[in-house]
Design brief:
6-stranded mixed sheet, hydrolase, glycosidase, TIM Barrel, alpha/beta, beta-glucosidase, globular, signal, Glyco_hydro_3_C
């Protein structure tokens, strides 16, 4: 292929002999030709500059008002720079951020020798992490929708907001498989199942990049898959701790979503993970990044480091002695660019000059980095944005409506003894109690949206003129410098507050909560119903990155005195709806049987209050489903539904069954599975099976059911899980309505990595399992008559 590119470049050179415009600026030429032309014009210093990034070092190029000031920039900045991180973080408006990126692009274009534009990065896990951007439900809540089409729409709107600011790449989505709920980043994942994570991950990539790439057109950005790989089940639940998986388990569980997003959604960037796998840190894992990702899967995009991940080969993993050696290890693994600031890769020029690194290795990385800039259209036309449009696009009414829709679909009804939906006409006084009742928690990697609605505000708005809605904090979980006795939803929750607070988490002393509990109990006694909002916050579940900034937990019980609060309120005898807001599964075993209803929300984004109020009052029929198992006890961990059959025994002091299983969720109506059949029910190993489910809404309300299809291999050459999710569909039915739901299973649904570490389908009998969650299933037998080899 490289010879073909050279040939095309020679033809162009002959045809354009008399022209002055270089080939790399000609938009009619193939990207590969333009890249080779530009690369051939670059000095070694200019090449390495493309492998560097700036974040904290942005301070070198801004004035006291954080405006770009090239007169302050170091001399080397005239070489250009590959990437700049988080351009929005200095500014309070989208317009200011757009002006900042425009100023830098204009100067780079006019004052560097080759005019190579800059790629700007932002975080966009569930919305742009910046002021004025729309904040959607956290990733694990988006997974709870079991609606990839909705997720694609959400990330499409995120991309539109991001690109309007002059930003071209986001460090999202997270496609780690989350199997360790003590881990503070579990909320960033799409859950415990590789198939569900892959479906949501592909939807996110399509939303961000568009369906046809390259090019990455207007209104779209480059997606970055995080974090490759094994990050989601760290030892002891400690962030960035080692993982110990065999190659088969790694490929089938933790690499699977990455492969799907690369091969089918064509993700253009991947981020390496902090952790090590079997002793090899991911930033130095040439087998995983070079041989598997690039070699086996054909990935042509950019591999970025996680923040400071390359220097951590020295400081955390102790596999490199100095920055020079760390840079060599990462480059050998084909990590293309160092984030967020230049450290190890700043040594590359000197190392090439000394013969320690071949310049060809730098060329390969820069070739990929330039390709991304051409793919996103930075060289074609003016690389600037309309600053006024950035303000109009961010947090539009359309975005706000979509955030509400996503929040509605994410809410999971876990228990209902008939208490819900509440009847507004039969209520005089509603008590809204709890640490999360009067504030909006957004979760990790959140921005500062223009609008937020707390549960207290949502219920007051919904019940205005019908019932009195009163508030008590109940308990406080953690202390920081901004907490007050009054709810402050405009602050955007504790994540926004903690930016100005200490890294250290300070739990509120129990004695300080006694009066709050007494106040809450007094309010409850005079009320018709209590909406009790509990959970965690963005300080008790967050990314742990240093001894002074922790985020993982030993316990999964509700932090602080929340259980004490719940039990005290329950003792009044007033009906209680438990609403859970937070970033991880919580062990609520002692509370489940005592409350009348449980509504699980995770973090629901800026429209939290409206969505919860609609569900509680029956304006919306909840249909979210758990993307992760909720255990009865921490001693059950790891607790995921697709375990191996040898994990079959209970404990001497309790059951091994979860409190709520994967895929579980209730509705205000009821659904009946009238029949399940396979067409055909006997097929060759490379064949396709259609699962046909006749579903009926047998209740009196319209609602959604999530039809889930699992597969079990009865006998196999390698031990297989007891069941694996292989298909699902969220279906809407009116009262009494019937519908035949069809889900197709191809050979990949029955394949696994066999004895020779190739994906094979073995002849034999399988069970196809269909139902509304991972435990209540109808089994239909399928015979596969011959094997099939799908290769690596």
């Amino acid at each position: 292929m490289r010879l073909g590119i050279v040939f095309l470049l020679l033809l162009w050179s002959c045809a354009a002999w008399a022209q002055e415009r270089p080939a790399y600026l000609d938009p009619t030429l193939p990207i590969e030709v333009r890249v080779e032309d530009l690369l051939g014009r670059m000095t070694l210093e200019e090449k390495v500059a493309q492998m560097l990034s700036m974040r904290q070092t942005k301070r070198l190029i801004v004035d006291e008002q954080n405006r770009f000031d090239p007169s302050r920039a170091p001399e080397w900045f005239k070489l250009g720079i590959g990437r700049i991180e988080r351009p929005s973080e200095y500014f309070q408006t989208a317009r200011e951020a757009a002006a900042f990126t425009n100023a830098i692009q204009r100067w780079v274009r006019e004052n560097t020798r080759l005019g190579i534009p800059v790629i700007f990065h932002e975080e966009a896990l569930h919305g742009l992490r910046a002021a004025e951007a729309t904040s959607y439900p956290q990733a694990i809540a988006l997974a709870s929708t079991w609606n990839p089409a909705l997720v694609e729409r959400v990330y499409g709107r995120i991309a539109r907001e991001v690109r309007a600011r002059g930003v071209h790449q986001v460090l999202a989505p997270v496609v780690d498989v989350g199997r360790e709920p003590r881990w503070g980043r579990i909320e960033e994942t799409f859950g415990e199942d590789p198939y569900l994570v892959a479906e949501m991950g592909k939807a996110a990539v399509w939303g961000l990049q568009g369906r046809r790439v390259p090019p990455v057109g207007p209104g779209h950005v480059i997606a970055t898959l995080k974090h490759m790989a094994g990050h989601g089940q760290p030892e002891s639940g400690i962030n960035v701790a080692p993982v110990f998986f065999g190659e088969r388990h790694l490929r089938e569980v933790f690499l699977y979503p990455f492969r799907e997003a690369v091969e089918k959604a064509h993700a253009l960037s991947v981020m390496a993970s902090y952790n090590e796998i079997d002793g090899i840190p991911s930033h130095a894992n040439a087998w995983m990044l070079r041989d598997v990702l690039r070699g086996e899967w054909g990935f042509r995009g950019v591999i970025v480091s996680d923040w400071h991940g390359i220097p951590q080969l020295i400081t955390r993993h102790h596999v490199a002695e100095n920055l020079e050696e760390a840079a060599r290890l990462a480059l050998q693994a084909t990590v293309d660019v160092e984030l967020p600031d230049y450290e190890a890769y700043a040594t590359l020029v000197d190392q090439v000059r000394r013969g320690l690194i071949p310049e060809l290795a730098v060329d390969e990385a820069v070739r990929r980095l330039l390709w991304a800039k051409f793919a996103v259209g930075l060289f074609d036309g003016e690389p600037y944005v309309d600053e006024a449009e950035a303000s109009r696009v961010n947090a539009s009414e359309e975005d706000r409506a979509l955030a509400l829709e996503a929040a509605r679909e994410a809410i999971i009804l876990l228990k209902n003894d008939g208490l819900l939906p509440l009847e507004a006409g039969r209520l005089d006084r509603v008590a809204v109690i709890g640490p999360h009742a009067g504030e909006v928690l957004l979760g990790g990697y959140s921005g500062r949206p223009r609008y937020t609605v707390s549960i207290l505000e949502g219920l007051r708005e919904r019940l205005r003129g019908e019932a009195e809605v009163l508030y008590a904090e109940g308990v406080r979980i953690t202390e920081d410098s901004v907490f007050t006795d009054e709810p402050q939803p405009h602050l955007g929750g504790t994540w926004a507050r903690q930016r100005n607070a200490a890294h250290r988490v300070v739990f509120t002393p129990p004695e300080a909560n006694r009066s709050r509990i007494e106040e809450a109990v007094a309010l409850a006694r005079t009320s018709d119903v209590v909406v009790l909002v509990v959970g965690g916050n963005e300080q008790t579940a967050r990314e742990a990155y240093a001894p002074y900034h922790l985020g993982d937990r030993l316990s999964l019980r509700l932090p602080g005195q929340q259980e004490e609060l719940v039990k005290a309120v329950l003792a009044t005898g007033v009906p209680v709806v438990l609403v859970v807001i937070g970033g991880r599964p919580y062990v609520i075993t002692e509370l489940v049987d005592r409350v009348g209803a449980i509504v699980w929300g995770w973090y629901l984004g800026q429209e939290t209050g409206r969505a919860v109020a609609e569900v509680l009052l029956g304006d919306y029929n909840p249909a979210g489903r758990l993307p992760i198992t909720i255990p009865r006890h921490e001693g059950q961990l790891p607790a995921y539904y697709s375990h191996k059959p040898s994990k079959e025994l209970d404990y001497v002091d309790g059951t091994s069954r979860p409190l709520f299983p994967f895929g579980y969720g209730l509705s205000y109506t009821r659904f009946a599975y009238r029949s399940v059949r396979l067409e055909p029910d006997r097929v060759g190993g490379c064949g396709v099976v259609r699962v046909l489910v006749e579903l009926e809404n047998v209740g009196d309300r319209a609602g959604d059911e999530v039809v889930q299809v699992y597969v079990r291999d009865r006998v196999s050459s390698v031990a297989r899980p007891v069941k694996e999710l292989k298909g699902f569909r969220r279906v809407h039915l009116g009262p009494g309505e019937r519908k035949v739901v069809e889900i197709e299973l191809g050979p990949e649904a029955f394949a696994f990595y066999g004895l020779e570490m190739e994906r094979v389908v073995e002849a034999g009998w399988f069970d196809v399992l269909v139902g509304g969650n991972s435990e209540e299933l109808i089994s239909v037998p399928l015979e596969i008559t011959e094997g099939c080899n799908l290769g690596r």
